[in-house]
Amino acid sequence: MKKIALNWLVAGMILLALSADSARAGEVVVAVATNFLLPARDISAEFEKDTGHSVVLVAGATGKLATQILAGAPFDVFLAADQARPELLIDKQAAVAGSRFTYATGTLVLWSRDRLPLTGSELGSLDATRVSRIAMANPKLAPYGLAAEQALDRLGLLKALAGRFVYGENIGQTFAMAASRNVTAGLIAKSQLASLAEDQRGHWIDVPGSLHEPILQDGVLIMRAGDNTAARLFMSFMKSDKVAGIISRFGYGVSRP
User: Fold this and answer.
1) 251-256 — which CB contacts under 8 Å span 24+ positions?
2) 76 neighbors 92 (Cβ within 8 angstroms)
């Protein structure tokens, strides 16, 4: 009888411990640039598995997400597609000073499901006469769009293609337009090709980084999350070797703090 009572006591202690762990489990709401949504999903799954905390991802254009944060949107972490917006949030005291770090570097590509409108193997050989419409992200909202605009301008192609640009609000919309074949080609994030099966990846060329400002993607802790244990753990997790492996798998460069 004593043994049975002891077993019940042990079981009760285990249940209490599990309840305590559950009570400690928290939630982190992550605003993430659209280009990074796919790796963010894998990262979040690993974080939840390792810590017991839950992650809610909200994807959008970096500029729009930053505006929402300044307006009081309930985000805890911001994974931007540039450095300027996280820095702005710190300047506006909407993000925690000293929490900003570069988690990834992006690569821009010219992509089409069909043959690219090139006469050679580089972006400078783009044949404007073979382009009916070309998709790119809005340069005012999305860093990949700004990089695309800079690259085309330096090659003298911005004017040659005037009137034929179709703008996505973010790089996800740009990719969708290019994938639909409603445009001749699209300037997208190379990481987006990772979502496609090998036989669906079509044709692409890398846009040299020398043609545009580096696409350095920074993360920052939002001020409202200063006491959020789950959010702080997520920021630390983003700097781990496990996350570096995921980021690399999706075609990004990894910048270690």
Assistant:
1) 251/107, 251/190, 251/191, 251/193, 251/194, 252/39, 252/104, 252/105, 252/106, 252/107, 252/191, 252/217, 253/104, 253/105, 253/106, 253/107, 254/103, 254/104, 254/105, 255/102, 255/103, 255/104, 255/105, 255/216
2) no
Q: What is the pLDDT of residues 214-247, one digit of tens each?
A: 999 999 999 999 899 999 999 999 999 999 999 9
Per-residue confidence (pLDDT) for residue 57, from 0 to 100: 98
Phi, psi of 240 (to 5 degrees): -85, 160
Question: What pLDDT sits at residue 97?
Answer: 94
pLDDT of residue 22: 40
C-alpha separations of 214 from 37, 112, 207 in Å = 20, 23, 11
pLDDT given for residue 217 in this prediction: 95
Residues of the chain with pLDDT under 50: 1-23
**In sequence order, what DSSP letters do the residues of the chain get, joined into one string?**
-HHHHHHHHHHHHHHHHHHHHHHH--EEEEEEEGGGHHHHHHHHHHHHHHHS-EEEEEEE-HHHHHHHHHTT---SEEE-SSSHHHHHHHHTTSB-TT--EEEEEE-EEEEESS--SBSSSSGGGB-GGG-S-EEEE-TTT-HHHHHHHHHHHHTTHHHHTTT-EEEESSHHHHHHHHHTTSSSEEEEEGGGGGGS-GGG--EEEEPPGGGS--EEEEEEEBGGGTT-HHHHHHHHHTTSHHHHHHHHHTT-B----
pLDDT for 160 equals 94
